[in-house]
Design goal:
Blueprint lengths: L9 H4 L8 H8 L35 E5 L9 H13 L7 E5 L8 H8 L3 E5 L16 E4 L2 E6 L2 H4 L3 H11 L3
Parallel strand pairs: 1-2, 1-3, 3-5
Antiparallel strand pairs: 4-5
Length: 178
């Protein structure tokens, strides 16, 4: 059984005066108000589609090798770290045309699925904990894993490697097999 509030009872719930437009007064004075279905003259609004994200990256991404970094003060990677990265990749026969370096600091509101769908990586390297995207599957540190058609390496950031021979050695032993 549905309880119905009569117009005289409204003063009990709403002691102040209410002012309604004539159309609203007519609508609410009817015993049962109903929601009208849209007609041909009233088109149904189309659902809003979220546009696919567009990422800025350094490199050509020709070999689908995605490198995720985190540098608040740089576009992609700190200049002091780009030289050692390109040198390391060069020893593995990769050039800047082969890779895509993305600074995740610019895309904190994006999740792993968006990165994956956009770049379709066959190889992935995450440089440091801060470079991990939201909701990314957990990766073990300095171990190559295979998942969903790509090989991934989560390793130290260059800040953690510079001047740290042990960290650099661990990184090199893994990257050369990626």
């Amino acid at each position: 059984m549905k309880a119905e509030i009569l117009p005289g009872q409204l003063t009990y719930f709403l002691p102040e005066e209410l002012y309604l437009l004539k159309a609203d007064k007519d609508f609410y004075s009817q015993p049962t108000a109903r929601v009208e279905e849209p007609t041909a003259e009233q088109p149904v609004a189309a659902p809003i589609e979220t546009p696919a994200p567009v990422f800025k990256y350094k490199g050509g991404n020709q070999k689908n090798f995605l490198i995720l970094t985190h540098y608040p003060g740089a576009d992609f990677i700190a200049d002091a770290h780009l030289a050692p990265l390109t040198s390391t990749l060069g020893r593995l026969n990769f050039t800047m045309d082969d890779i895509a370096i993305v600074n995740i600091n610019h895309y904190r509101d994006h999740n792993w699925k968006q990165f994956f769908e956009y770049f379709k990586p066959q190889k992935l390297m995450v440089l440091g904990k801060s470079a991990l995207p939201a909701d990314m599957p957990i990766l073990p540190l300095n171990q190559i894993i295979e998942a969903a058609g790509y090989r991934a390496l989560y390793t130290f950031s260059f800040d953690e490697m510079m001047g740290q021979k042990e960290n650099t050695k661990l990184f090199w032993n893994q990257i050369k097999t990626l």
